[in-house]
Amino acid sequence: MISCVEGKIIFKGERFVIIDANGVGYRIFAGPDVLRKAKTKEQFKLWTHLYLREDTIELYGFLEYAELEFFQTLIQISGIGPKSGLGVLAVAPLDTLKRAIAAGETSYLTQVSGIGKKIAEKIILELRDKLGKIGFAGEENVFLKEEGDILQALRILGYSYSEARDAIKQLSPNIAGTQNRVKEALKILGKS
């Protein structure tokens, strides 16, 4: 099994990168965070999942090992393939997704193409207990609602999910109130 790949990026596509690791080029499918940070001709390391089917062998890459573990847990659910798994991870930061699932919040999951309310509920049902064991169950749902409101406000203003999510990641925890946090996110987006 190929657990990680490190080398120079020799090509960057819309949904994948090709990393040259000691003369072997690995095509690795990845989410928007990885693709944004990947620069051609630079050294790069990705944690990988090797996906095997009758007619397919594909690698999926992640910046953090925790993202890889979550992805592997997610694709074990019937009806969730690797492309949907990448889509889920692209919607929000990993901790936010875990909190949303532990709180039974389907709105993050239904933003992914191909995941409707039924599949979102199935994901929550199957993952909630696992996430509860690692400390995400029972947390306040206020954080999730506020973050969802900020994300929605930025989307209405024309920013993409990834732009809005990146701005939310950079917000200081000292800023209180949804309106103030939206203003701060807009400042962050204005700088980039």
Automatic annotation (TrEMBL):
Domain Helix-hairpin-helix DNA-binding motif class: 72-91, 107-126
Region feature (Domain III): 149-192
Subcellular location: Cytoplasm
GO molecular function, one term: four-way junction helicase activity
SUPFAM superfamilies: DNA helicase RuvA subunit, C-terminal domain, Nucleic acid-binding proteins, RuvA domain 2-like
GO cellular component terms, A-Z: cytoplasm; Holliday junction helicase complex; Holliday junction resolvase complex
Cleavable signal peptide: none
InterPro entries: DNA_helicase_Holl-junc_RuvA_I (IPR013849), Hlx-hairpin-Hlx_DNA-bd_motif (IPR003583), NA-bd_OB-fold (IPR012340), RuvA (IPR000085), RuvA_2-like (IPR010994), RuvA_C (IPR011114), RuvA_C_sf (IPR036267)
One GO process term, biological-process aspect: DNA repair
Keywords assigned: Cytoplasm, DNA damage, DNA recombination, DNA repair, DNA-binding
Region spans: Flexible linker: 137-149
Claim: DNA repair is one of the keywords in the record: yes
UniProt record similarity statement: Belongs to the RuvA family.
Function comment: The RuvA-RuvB-RuvC complex processes Holliday junction (HJ) DNA during genetic recombination and DNA repair, while the RuvA-RuvB complex plays an important role in the rescue of blocked DNA replication forks via replication fork reversal (RFR). RuvA specifically binds to HJ cruciform DNA, conferring on it an open structure. The RuvB hexamer acts as an ATP-dependent pump, pulling dsDNA into and through the RuvAB complex. HJ branch migration allows RuvC to scan DNA until it finds its consensus sequence, where it cleaves and resolves the cruciform DNA.
Quaternary organization: Homotetramer. Forms an RuvA(8)-RuvB(12)-Holliday junction (HJ) complex. HJ DNA is sandwiched between 2 RuvA tetramers; dsDNA enters through RuvA and exits via RuvB. An RuvB hexamer assembles on each DNA strand where it exits the tetramer. Each RuvB hexamer is contacted by two RuvA subunits (via domain III) on 2 adjacent RuvB subunits; this complex drives branch migration. In the full resolvosome a probable DNA-RuvA(4)-RuvB(12)-RuvC(2) complex forms which resolves the HJ.
Domain remarks in the Swiss-Prot or TrEMBL record: Has three domains with a flexible linker between the domains II and III and assumes an 'L' shape. Domain III is highly mobile and contacts RuvB.
Protein's UniProt name: Holliday junction branch migration complex subunit RuvA
Organism: Candidatus Tagabacteria bacterium CG03_land_8_20_14_0_80_41_22
